[in-house]
Amino acid sequence: MADAELEEIRRARLAQLQQQAASRGGPSQEGGQEDQRRQAESERRSAIMSQILDPAAADRLGRIRLVKESRAVDIENRLMMLAQTGQIRQKVTEDQLKELLNAVAENQRKEEEEQKIVITRRKGGWDDDDDLLDL
């Protein structure tokens, strides 16, 4: 889709949301405006993802979203960053998405290993059984 078409779709959707809000009595609360903002952001992200991902990769990302929302959002953020910096020149295939997922999983494993706490117990000191032998 061309950028002009996407902008037209966004404007039409925003007009539709405003009309729905007006028919309900208007967004008198900040919550209504916040919902509209989230909806518009969601639509913007999905439009960008449809430009970046081929259908098979988009389907896989959708299945990931069903299982773990945070991982899907993280992958989307990375893809958007790569697209904005010009590192993505063509649509991302399912295999490329798998590679990105594996890289993210490897980074998370490394972070978890760095966060491990090791407890070492002292030997030869402060044993509760020693107190019983002194009686």
TrEMBL record:
Residues 34-46 have a biased composition (Basic and acidic residues). Residues 15-24 have a biased composition (Low complexity). SUPFAM superfamilies: Double-stranded DNA-binding domain (SSF46950). Keywords: Coiled coil. The keyword Coiled coil applies. One of its GO terms (cellular component) is nucleus. Pfam families: dsDNA_bind (PF01984). Residues 90-117 form a coiled coil. Residues 15-49 are annotated as: Disordered. GO terms for molecular function: DNA binding. Belongs to the PDCD5 family. This is DNA-binding TFAR19-related protein. It comes from Penicillium oxalicum (strain 114-2 / CGMCC 5302).
